[in-house]
Amino acid sequence: QVHLVESGGGLVQAGGSLRLSCTASGRTFSGYAMGWFRQAPGKEREFVAGIGWNGGNTYYLDSAKDRFSISRDNAKNTVYLQMNSLKPEDTAVYYCAAGSSSFWPRISWTGEYDYWGQGTQVSVSS
Questions:
Q1: Contact 72, 34 (CB under 8 A)
Q2: Are 78 and 71 in contact (CB under 8 A)?
Q3: Which residues contact 73 (CB under 8 A, 6 or more apart)?
Q4: Contact of 97 with 116, CB cutoff 8 Å
Q5: Could you write out the DSSP letters of every residue in 17-39?
Q6: What is the per-residue pLDDT for 111?
Q7: What is the rounded distance in angstroms from the CA atom of residue 80 to the CA atom of residue 78?
Q8: What is the rounded CA–CA span in Å between residue 104 and residue 55?
Q9: How much is the average pLDDT of 9-16?
Q10: 82 and 71 in contact (C-beta within 8 Å)?
């Protein structure tokens, strides 16, 4: 079992930045691929970014590719999502997840993840 806790969400103006963190406890964190997903009201949960178990490969939603950066620190059991140049359309609840698929496209599929955090709200005002 892996328990995931996100933090770092909040309200920010368009153009601003936030850094989300997700800390894991339980089974070996370094053995899992990690993903960030988001869900806006009335919309399906979508993949935002993913990182392989050793941090060697990263993947992004097209609209996030030049603005967001995913990283992990296996010594701290933590994965990060640095979000810059935020836009109102980035407003959503952001979830981190742990799964077994480190490569595209499976890393982007919600069904490939075994554990999910409770989510953190990100709101971007115009």
A1: yes
A2: no
A3: 79, 80
A4: yes
A5: -EEEEEEEEES-GGGSEEEEEEE
A6: 94
A7: 7
A8: 14
A9: 98
A10: yes
Distance of alpha carbon 86 from alpha carbon 124, whole angstroms: 7
Contact by Cβ (8 Å): 22, 117:
yes
How would you classify the pairing of strands 120-125 and 2-7? unpaired
Task: Provide, for the chain, the percentages of residues in helix, strand and coil under a 3-state DSSP scheme, each rounded to the nearest 5.
Answer: 10, 50, 35
Element (H, E) at 95: strand 92-99
Task: Provide the residue type at 28 as one letter.
Answer: T
Averaged over 93-118, what is the pLDDT?
A: 95
Cα end-to-end span (Å), the chain? 40
The string of pLDDT tens digits covering residues 43-76 is 999 999 999 998 889 999 999 999 999 999 999 9
Instruction: Please name the residue that has the structure tokens 């178990």.
Output: 53
Give the C-alpha separation, 31 to 107, whole Å: 14
Closest Cα to residue 34, out of 44, 19, 45, 47? 47
**Maximal CA-CA distance, the chain:** 41
